[in-house]
Design goal:
By secondary structure, the protein is of the alpha/beta class. Helix content is about 35%, strand content about 20%. It contains seven helices and eight strands. The protein is globular, with a radius of gyration of 17 Å. It binds zinc ion.
Length: about 240
């Protein structure tokens, strides 16, 4: 059994590459946290403008930003910031780290949450495997580095904002059996409603299946465990 997720924090910053990434499971944990009185904010590296087949980026970017803001509101998240990196081309390194570190200084979180950045979406024994995207891999690793960068006055000396060393934990979404987990039984319905807000995106992704049905299937896959419980798993790192 995974260990319970810590509760000794008050403000979380959830960092993702694209609109809809948080809604593929982690939003169920966000719903539980905000219902318990925690403050949660979202930070997105891109607007996901390359994510809808047949819809040009100039149209898809603003549309997806709007869908993400509505999704966030459903799980009690009022503040959503976009960093304006180009969708599909995130690179792990100092450029992305500096932008993330500056945002961490602005939001001053004591918990930073990010998404699965491993090479695959399946455990190493599964073949053929589902390759994780370039943006997801770059983002997750850069977030872990940026927490340290935000606290350091010398790595990026021109970085705006006061150094922030108050991040206690970084929680990274895991696949497979997690070391820590949030019981999200009470967050499932909100998570389904949250993902449903990505309506245009899901309509294009799977035109034959109603959006609500797609959203429920995704949230079930992301949260249902073999013992019938509902969990979202994380590996924790010190901030
Ligand atoms: Zn994504």
């Amino acid at each position: 059994m995974p260990a319970p997720f810590p509760t000794d924090w008050s403000r979380a910053l959830v960092v993702a590459a694209h609109p809809d990434d948080v809604e593929y499971g982690v939003a169920a944990a966000v719903a539980v946290w905000t219902a318990a009185g925690k403050e949660v904010r979202y930070l997105l590296a891109t607007r996901g403008e390359a994510g809808i087949a047949g819809v040009p980026p100039a149209e898809a970017g603003p549309l997806r930003e709007e869908e993400e803001r509505r999704s966030a509101a459903v799980v009690g998240v009022a503040e959503v910031e976009f960093l304006d990196h180009r969708d599909g081309t995130l690179v792990e390194g100092p450029g992305l780290r500096a932008d993330l570190a500056a945002a961490i200084r602005r939001h001053r979180p004591d918990l930073v949450v990010t998404l699965h950045g491993g090479d695959t979406w399946t455990t190493p024994d599964v073949t053929p495997a589902a390759w994780n995207s370039a943006d997801h891999r770059a983002l997750s690793r850069s977030v872990l580095d940026a927490v340290a960068d935000a606290a350091n006055e010398w790595i990026f000396p021109d970085l705006p904002g006061e150094p922030w060393s108050g991040t206690q934990y970084v929680a990274v979404q895991t696949i497979g059996e997690p070391p820590h987990a949030v019981d999200v039984a009470d967050g499932v319905e909100a998570a389904v409603a949250s993902l449903t807000e990505h309506r245009r995106y899901l309509e294009v992704l799977d035109p034959g299946t109603p959006v609500e049905e797609q959203a429920r299937r995704v949230v079930d896959q992301a949260t249902l465990t073999e013992d019938g419980a509902r969990r979202v798993g994380f590996r924790l790192f010190w901030g």
